Amino acid sequence: MPETLTKAHIIGEIINLNGYPKNRAAEILDSLLEIMKSTLESGEDVLISGFGKFRVNDKAERKGRNPATGGDMMLAARRVVTFKCSGKLRDKINGR
Question: Which pTM was predicted?
């Protein structure tokens, strides 16, 4: 099973690639993530060329089923984040 890329691993890679001190690398990553979160929270898309697009979609209220009782219930409307990878990333993942 492949290992999961964690925030700590990303910080380590920033250090290795750019020679930044650990606290500076963590600040850079935290800044990037905060920019992405606030952008998505406002309903805007985040497009990273060559990587993909993060988008907020609204899901309407819908009928569901309580798994514990089997009874019907209504699931509240909500917002979800979806990701669509770029063609370049898709090709890289598929070894092309």
Answer: 0.78
